[in-house]
Specification:
With about 100 residues, this protein is an all-alpha fold. It contains 3 helices and no strands. The longest helix is centred in the N-terminal third of the chain and has 31 residues.
Length: about 100
């Protein structure tokens, strides 16, 4: 059995609070869609969750954060998709108010 380094453990450990926050945001979007009868596309919040998860797994497999092209690209795509989805949800929830 291979030993797990401290950076690998912390990388994987920090994934869980991030995933919790993203799932909470997904649930807010789903709640608003059901209550306001406005389409929020809450299903698309799974994209940043999966991309962040893939980047965290990539970083944990190589043993350090940053400096890996595949992990950095996945992290960038996850951040951009989360930004787009969050701004869309914000405008959807605050329009005409």
């Amino acid at each position: 059995m291979a030993a797990v380094s401290v950076s690998q453990f912390l990388t994987l450990y920090l994934w869980f609070p991030l995933a919790f926050v993203l799932v909470f945001l997904l649930l807010i979007a789903r709640f608003y869609q059901r209550q306001a009868a406005e389409r929020t596309f809450f299903e698309w919040f799974a994209v940043p969750i999966l991309l962040f998860g893939a980047s965290v797994m990539r970083y944990a497999s190589i043993g350090h954060l940053a400096g890996d092209l595949a992990g950095d690209v996945l992290m960038g795509l996850a951040g951009c998709s989360l930004l787009v989805m969050s701004v869309f949800l914000y405008y959807r929830m605050t329009q005409n108010r």
